[in-house]
## 1
Amino acid sequence: MNQTITLEGLTKRYGRATAVDELTCAVHPGVVTGFLGPNGAGKSTTIRMIVGLDRPSSGRAAVGGRPYHALPAPLREVGVLLDGRSAHPRRSARDHLRMLAASNRIRDRRVTAVLEQVGLDGVADRRAGTFSLGMSQRLGIAAALLGDPGVLIFDEPVNGLDPGGIRWIRGLMRGLAAEGRTVLVSSHLLAEMEQTADHLIVIGRGRLLADTPMTSVTGSLEDAYLALTADSVEFGS
Ligand SMILES: Nc1ncnc2c1ncn2[C@@H]1O[C@H](COP(=O)(O)OP(=O)(O)OP(=O)(O)O)[C@@H](O)[C@H]1O
């Protein structure tokens, strides 16, 4: 399938506030695209609209030309990590993934495969509520990978991961892109993005500020980012 994510005039208003403002851009397969912007810029809201958790006020978000809700087997086409702590705390990691697999007609052996892939095979039968933040993030990543999707979206995946985990997810994202998948990742960790992303989409106050290959960033990403977003920071210095 066509694995490009396309946003066309994507807009989300909450009352009089505009969280996402006429966003038009595309996220392509085969590369890691970093999705950057200050707190409150609209990254999570954009991701939620891509995966059908929020309705756009106007405009469109599509994957392979189709809105998420029109995909016949969404988890097999788009994997998303939004909040690592999404599993029921009393349910084991394995059961959480089994339920997701069953509801999306994904074979049970994928559960074992993704548990191994994220390094949770040794704790698969422990309740998710006893997991550390980093382990919960890994479980969320396992859920995103479950359907072997061509499109992966990670909202702050490095959150809570230790240095070994950070290196692991960097390799995971690079590997997924090298397999030809579309990888969109939001993060505030610019040094990490500098090592991971091939392409950058930067938003501020819901608007597109930059859509550019990493190679066009001269000097440090931090300097370039802070200059670009200087007028778009709602909170902070
Ligand atoms: N359900 C909601 N109701 C009202 N306003 C909302 C809602 N969800 C988000 N917003 C507002 O939309 C704006 C964008 O928020 P969003 O969470 O998308 O930003 P973000 O770029 O992901 O931020 P962060 O980096 O802090 O996670 C913020 O001003 C936020 O307060």
Note: DSSP finds eight helices and nine strands in the chain.
## 2
Amino acid sequence: MKYISTRGTAPVLNFEEVLLAGLASDGGLYVPETLPSFSKEEIANWANLSYAELAFKVISPFVSDSVAASDLKKMIDETYAGFSHSAVAPLKELGTNEWVQELFHGPTLAFKDFALQLLGRLMDYALAKRGERLVIMGATSGDTGSAAIEGCRHSDHLDIFILHPHNRVSEVQRRQMTTILEDNVFNIALEGNFDDCQQMVKDSFADQSFLNGRKLGAVNSINWARIMSQIVYYFSAALALGGPYREVSFSVPTGNFGDIFAGYLAKQMGLPIKQLVVATNRNDILHRVISGNDMSKGTLEHTLSPSMDIMVSSNFERLLFDVYGRDGAAIADLMDRFKSGPVKLDGARWDSVRELFDSAAVNDEDTCATIASVYEETGYLLDPHTAIGVKAGRECNRDASVPMITLATAHPVKFPDAVLKAGLDAPQLPPHMADLFEREERVSVIDNDIAQVQAFMAGHMHD
Ligand SMILES: Cc1ncc(COP(=O)(O)O)c(C=O)c1O
Ligand SMILES: N[C@@H](CCOP(=O)(O)O)C(=O)O
């Protein structure tokens, strides 16, 4: 499998190179040159596989030039054995043809574990083979950070620096990151917002001179391996509900567009998906693009669903690359213009986006109302991000006979503020996190200034 950049001028790489490269050298994101596709018969044959077996089937074609099949199988088995639910990604029924897929049974209680616990293993495997080290720089609005740290903390080949927006993640999220005290783990609370953190990461890929010859790697969804691993649970959910001989729809709480892009890829790979609903909070650029061709950043606001407080959604570029006929020059030009102001998609391209996705934006009040009403009707407690997905799924549903599956992207215990505002009791931390609030924290608060962040990193990296 070869990987090409969305901006057309970076070198073509194989899987191992893409895994370690993160962002492409031309500023674009890597995507497979061609996607594997599966017939309905092939997909149907996977109906009785365990989650790990299914993951092996879906992931193998993307990595087979770089990872031996037996090694891949071992890494996948170990990854999903670390999840606390035997089904790994179980479905829960909320009502007639209304489901949530629980993606929060990994060690850090959010969907990020699906990819990041595997990514850490894949990186370690590749770096051990090469005898190399990597400096990881990641941006988080709360969930990627802890999952990435968990995936990398035991590695002899990685130093990991995670930037989160100071005072803009929940206390549980912050403590999940800052109480990990291994000497290769560094938490930076940036005096800025998530977009600032993410831009700093991208700018650091563009000029890596501060690393003094070391190499930079990514754990955010700019790294192709993140997206690849997230495709699996779409197959898992559809198979559980009668797919591929029955269509299903997904509503996906969306920020950086990585999770829903994985759903789009599952569809391109042959999974019959009727609707893909982009569910955003008040930071609604994606809803505005899809519904009104308005790709303008606006002001990033702090909401009760902080993990989705994102305006510059990295993976939208991967979609635009397809929609613009894989014309790297056109994407480079579009992204360049977007950097300095609002853009509109060409009419026919926008039509394609609207055909592929439905969308809705949900404010804090409706988020809380959904948490409260779903709890009252079913006894099921949604986290605020999932509540946005459920509300948007209901709003956008075009065919009540098709199951609508909302991806439950985080456990509500991570967001007690929203649960309390919904008038409900905050849930208890699970046993492995019961003493989270007593654990020592280590974090460095740094100005929103790339020179200061890079100087901090240069002063703490290992050789
Ligand atoms: C809990 C939660 N839900 C939804 C999202 C949105 O996912 P994505 O960024 O892949 O669109 C995130 C993070 O981005 C998240 O942490
Ligand atoms: N919501 C994310 C933001 C980063 O997105 P990613 O999927 O690109 O890592 C988070 O929780 O950090």
Note: The mean pLDDT is 98.
